[in-house]
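The pair is quoted verbatim underneath.

:::
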Amino acid sequence: MHVHLLYADEAGESHWSDQPVSLEERSFAPPAKAIEVSEPEAATHSLFLRLRAGWDEPIHPTPVRQTLICLRGEVEVTASDGEKRRIRSGDVWRMEDRHGKGHHTRVTSAEDFECVIVQYD
């Protein structure tokens, strides 16, 4: 399992990488059997977001450290270094490019893009 990590280097250039998610078998909801689960991470907010089909926003850094879980639709996200990734239903995108040049996002699906966002700051 992994998340698409978008981060900014010290020069402010944004880059993609695959960040593995470590899972460990443990009791999560006793008396249910042990399951594979990651370490918990404290969050401050969660919200639902919709970008209408055709949405095309200017380049910007993320306002807060956050994770996006795509529910429906597809976006193409371009890091400032030029690398593009498509975020589709079921994908998880971690945004940590809080400074520098940022990224560009546009909806590439014919349908609206819908997601859940979890914020950490």
About this structure: The chain has a mean pLDDT of 97.
